[in-house]
Amino acid sequence: xxxxxxxxxxxxxxxxxxxxxxxxxxxxxxxxxxxxxxxxxxxxxxxxxxxxxxxxxxxxxxxxxxxxxxxxxxxxxxxxxxxxxxxxxxxxxxxxxxxxxxxxxxxxxxxxxxxxxxxxxxxxxxxxxxxxxxxxxxxxxxxxxxxxxxxxxxxxxxxxxxxxxxxxxxxxxxxxxxxxxxxxxxxxxxxxxxxxxxxxxxxxxxxxxxxxxxxxxxxxxxxxxxxxxxxxxxxxxxxxxxxxxxxxxxxxxxxxxxxxxxxxxxxxxxxxxxxxxxxxxxxxxxxxxxxxxxxxxxxxxxxxxxxx
Length: 308
Prior knowledge:
The chain is α/β, with parallel strands linked by helices.
């Protein structure tokens, strides 16, 4: 501030300004959470985010986690000190009735399978690892991976318009049946409870996949659902960079500031709105006692009005 703007400012003033800005944007951020919870399709993901104990809110030095709930035009971030199923329920709302795109982490297991879309990008990595093993495991992984590649060739053709949805559905029905058959045959292979061979790891993975198999195909039958969770992972990337350069936060208030600012900047970027102008308006609003600007997109504008 001194070198660029010739403004002298103390560290204490920086802290007070940060607290004032957090107060200014708290209501719009809370409204953003409500908005995301009302959307029919959301992406969810989480990454580690260290939180210190400077304010006494983390006396046991627990690992912090930054969660994101993502809709096309509004995102919501929150830092918590756990990664539990209850945290996921609190974030989404226990009565959430839409579809959640996520990885296979157990915190999402409370969501009915018909409301889930599991990430095929994560699945592809698992299938590749199986295919790189030897023997029977290699054969299982290679067969599943070949069907994954075929599925996505059809998916890309569907998106570009060179394949009709009717033909896509017909083709996927056959592929899904063979994919499931391979999983069932692999899951039926005998292994001992303590066995740690490559084949045993493969069998356990296939058994786990069978339990959630319906959630692999939601994108096929529901328009607007993507087969991967790449959007949420991209949304977390700025936070990961922030974490690496700042080493996380030192207090609960610092974590709230990080999550609120990520909510603001990600939502405004998705809507093509300038963040600095919005933050300036929020600051002026809190100082004048007026309402802060909203992060919710104007319903009078079509989605195409906004640019991601």
